[in-house]
Structure formats: C-alpha cells, structure tokens
Amino acid sequence: MTWQPEIDEYARRQELARQMGGAEKVARHHANGKLTVRERVDALVDAGSFDEVGSAAGFPDYDAEGRLVGLTPANVVCGRARLDGREVFVTGDDFTVRGGANDGGLREKLAYAETQAVRWGLPLVRLVDGTGGGGSVRHLETLGRTYVPEVPIFAEVVETLTQVPVVALGLGSVAGLGAARVCASHYSVMVNGTSQLFAAGPPVVARAGEEVDKETLGGAAIHAKNGTIDDAVDSEAEAFERTRRFLSYLPSSIRELPARTACDDPVDRREESLIGVIPRDARRVYKMRPILEAVFDAGSVFEIGRAWGRSVITALARLDGWPVAVLASDPYHYGGAWTVDSSRKAIRLVDLAENFRLPVVHLVDIPGFLIGTAAERDGIMRYGTQALAAIRSSTVPWCGVMVRKAFGMAALSQRGGTRAFQRMAWPSAQWGSLPIAGGVYAAYRAEIDAAPDPAARQAEIEARLEAVQSPLRTAEAFGIEEIIDPRDTRRHLCRFATLAAPLRAGARGFGYRP
Amino acid sequence: MSRDVHSEVAGSVFELLVAPGDTVAQGDTLLLVESMKMEIPIEAPVSGVVAAVHVIVGDTVAEDQRVISIEAS
C-alpha cells in the first residue's frame, strides 16, 4: 500500500484552507471592491510560480471519532514566488478570517512569513490587510490576564530592511501592527477608496472624542500626502504593477549589486529642447519631469512619492541600462525650496540608494530652504540639516547637475567630499550664499538708507551684483568643475553611470531608517 | 461636476488669467501665485468652464487653499 491516502488527506486540508473565511465572508470582501488574499497573490506573481508554505495550517475541527470535519485557515498566506522571473517571498493577510487580525493566525506562521526573505536573501512583498497584533480585547477573558505587548520578530523585521528590498501594500483597513508593517518597508502603496491606515481605527478614536469615518481618518490620499506611504494608486492591479516596477531597479539583496538591463536608447542622444528649457526670466518656472524623461533612458523614470514633499522629485531610473536613484527639484512648488517634507523625502531616497548601492543623480534647482514663519514652525532647519547629513554621509557615487539655483545651506545638498563625485552646470545656473534680491538690503543698508533715492540706489547695486553672477565667472575660478551644453546632459550622465558601476560595492555609510 | 482647484503653495495671488464663464482646457494656466519670488502657475486639472474665482489679485493664499472652481465638461 502506498502513502496516497495521506496525500489525499493533506490535499483535502489544503482545499478547506483555500475556502478562506467561507463563501459569505469572501462575497462580502468582494462586494467591498477588494480581491481575496489568494486572488492578490495570483494577480501579483508570475503564473504558476507560487509555492505556498503552510498551505494546510490553521484551526482544525475534529469530531468525536477524530475525523476532520472542518479547517479554518490561519489568516496569513505565504510562500515563494517569482516576479518577472525573479524569486521573491510573498506574505498576505486574509481579511476574511478574523478581519486579518493576528489572533486569527498562528503566531509561528506569521513569524515564519516575516523572516524568510531576509534569511534567503530575497525581496519581500507584504500584502497587508489586517488590524493590530493583539486583535480584540475579548482575548483577555479567555487568557485570564493581560500582557506587555511584544512582537519578538520586530528586530528581525527592522534588520530585513538593511538586507533585502521590502515592498508593502496596504490593501484594506490596516491599524496598529498592520500599519507598522506597511511603513516598515522601502516602498509602500495604498489603494484610493479601498484602503485606510491608522494607529487606531474609528471606534477607538471615537472613545477619544473624535467621531470620524475610516476614509476621513486614514484614507490613501491623506497618507500619500504626508509621506506615511510612498504612493496612492487607483486599483490593486496598479499596486501590483508598481511593485514589480520598483523591484526591477533593485538587487535581490545587498549581497548583489543592482543589475544592468539592455538599453536601446543611444547614450549620445541629444535633446534639442534642453538648450532653451530654463526661462531666462528668473521669475518664471519650468517643468522638471520632461527634463528627466529627456536625459534618462527612454521610459525608465519611475517616480516615487509624487504627492508629498513636492518641491523635491524622487525617482528610480536608468542610464545606459544602469539603475540609479534620482533627486530633482520641482520649481512649481516653492520654486524648488526644500520644506520639512521635501527634506524627509530626500532622506528616504538617499537611504534607499545607500542601502542598495544605487548611484545618485541630483538635478539641482534649490533657492534655499523654505523661509518664513510657517517653515520655522515646522522645524525646517532640523529636518533640512538631517537631509544634508544623510547626503554628506552617503558613500555611493554621486553626480550633481546644476540646472538653475543653488543658494544658502540648501546648496550643500550636493555631496562633495572625498568619494566619487562629479558635478556639472548648465549655463542657466546661479548660486551664492544669498539670492541677490534678498541679500542686497541686508548688506548695503546704510548706503541705501542714506541715498537720496533709496530704491534707485538699491536697483543700481543689484544690477552691479547681477553682472558678476554669471556661472562662467565661477568656472574661471574653478568654482564649478564644468559648464555643459544642456543638450549633452544625457551623454555625460551615461558616462557617469558607467564609471560609477564598479565603485558601487562597499560598506554602507549608515543603516536604514523606515 | 464641479471641481475645486487649490493652490499648491502658500503665497500671494499675482495674476488672474481667467474669469467666471471662461472655457479652459486641462493644463491651461488659471492664475499665477507668487511664492519664493517666483510666479507659480496653477493649472486646470480638467477641461471645462470656470464656475467661480475665489480670490483676487493680492490675496494671500495658504497651501491647499481653494482658489477656483471649474464645471468640468
């Protein structure tokens, strides 16, 4: 006799587990516009590549004769899978069982799911759709006591961030530990309308005196704007697509370097429009995103965090096939001035680049840190200084393209230092400790006040100073390494990426902070 | 459907380029807000007809303040 009966019995348990929380719960989940955890895994990974682990794990129901009559699966589904041919580890919460709360799961399985990626050197994708670690306070009655909250694997969750890429998708109402599992990632996404995130949900908030629905409390748009998550999208399918795209720029773990892909965009492609894209009138703005499209490999710019810290654009992109991290300015937001949020966003990109050894390209147009009472109330210099510190302590090759302004402390956002650093300026560049218009009165106050026509005297001084502002004068003193024709930017950047490639390996300047 | 347009930056209204009743296309500049000594365009997020202009030249606007409403076509 073979062991077929046991295999058949195991298959029956797997089949029971695949029913998730039952037809009624699944129908309600679908009616809320959401996919089940198993549909999510299928939609995310390469067809047929999912090797589930713990496919029969759950809470069995045996009759008096010891025959299995039912099985409620543990509400974590996990396993190995491939994304665009690359091995990853996937874990997803099953909302149809106990609302995805951890007391509907097996502690051992959750711990397993969270720790395999780092142990095998694989990217981790979390499909988060559950509440906190403790679940309901009802639990206290069955336990007969309470406890100091503890997540024993949390140190390993944090360690994972220093070792392998982690993408976390918030796909339902996630609170407490669920919310933290979304944030403890290198790239996080929520879905508009069907996902919310909070420290605690509306019923708990109501007891603290605030009546609010879950969408108003923690909808995707709120968190995409405050930087709790990186991006909000309109469908789960789009979240899966962005997951694949994000991971395509990164190595599977820090044991490897980001892989070069084939590139059919010529490295010497000249974009004619770049010679005139920066307005000569200093009060006029321009669009940075088309410039990025023009200089990086065609179609390779993957912007991250578009809705927050908007004076800074962060992206992943490729140059002659080499993945790089991109920092740029968007003058449509405070003329490109760095705010608290822009500084936080820049730090997040620099940390990612440092951790996974992506060279950084920075297209600089920074009139300074944002000034004024609101900026001071927000604490701009604390966070701005943190951003400068993150940049200055990064160890990956760095390339600065001075597109327009670089004034004050914010101009220190160029890496400089003793590591590989290349810098070039467009002829539209201008720089200094203070913009002339803002600094003239402070510097020439006595002379201006004493003049018969103070306004005329001020204008006269400004004109004198404007005359020495040309970047060509800075280049004469070797204060800028090179002025380039903007149309040649791509060629220079591709050469930078090629020279940077062998320099990428090396010790990280700092750990990863989610 | 009426769609509110917000200033993405704090600043002051420098120039209004549309008035109620004007037809606008998505991407058209509706007004300029002066911020950090630059003129920052606020663009139409949708095509339609300007239903209301909530600010006048010289007004101080806060980040995310509603400035214009468009009846989308």
Description of the molecule:
The complex is a heterodimer of chains A (514) and B (73). Chain A is an alpha/beta fold and 514 residues long. Chain A has 3 domains: 4-248, 2-enoyl-CoA Hydratase, Chain A, domain 1 (Alpha-Beta Complex), CATH 3.90.226; 272-429 and 480-503, 2-enoyl-CoA Hydratase, Chain A, domain 1, CATH 3.90.226.10; 434-469, no CATH class. Helices cover 37% and strands 19% of the residues of chain A. Chain A is built from 19 helices and 18 strands. In chain A, the strands form 4 sheets. Chain A has a 7-stranded mixed β-sheet with strand order 1-4-5-6-7-9-11, with helices on both faces. In chain A, strands 12, 13, 14, 15, 16, 17 and 18 form a 7-stranded mixed β-sheet that branches. In chain A, helix 4 packs parallel to helix 6 and helix 16 packs across helix 17. Chain A is elongated and about 105 Å long. The termini of chain A are far apart. The model of chain A has no long low-confidence stretch (mean pLDDT 93). With 73 residues, chain B is mainly β. Chain B has a single domain, classed as OB fold (Dihydrolipoamide Acetyltransferase, E2P). In chain B, strands 1-8-6-3 form a 4-stranded antiparallel β-sheet, with no helix packed on it. The relative contact order of chain B is 0.39. The radius of gyration of chain B is 11 Å and the shape is elongated.
How do the helices and strands line up, and which of them pair or pack?
The complex is a heterodimer of chains A (514) and B (73).
Chain A: H1 4-17, H2 23-31, H3 37-44, E1 51-53, E2 58-62, E3 68-73, E4 76-83, E5 86-93, H4 107-120, E6 124-128, H5 139-143, H6 154-163, E7 166-170, E8 173-175, H7 177-183, E9 187-191, E10 196-198, H8 202-207, H9 214-218, H10 220-226, E11 231-233, H11 236-248, H12 288-295, E12 302-304, E13 312-319, E14 322-329, H13 340-356, E15 360-366, H14 373-378, H15 380-392, E16 398-407, E17 421-425, E18 430-432, H16 436-450, H17 454-467, H18 471-476, H19 489-500
Parallel strand pairs in A: 5-6, 6-7, 7-9, 8-10, 9-11, 14-15, 15-16, 16-17, 16-18
Antiparallel strand pairs in A: 1-4, 2-3, 4-5, 12-13, 13-14
Chain B: E1 2-6, E2 11-16, E3 23-24, E4 29-35, E5 38-43, E6 48-53, E7 60-61, E8 66-72
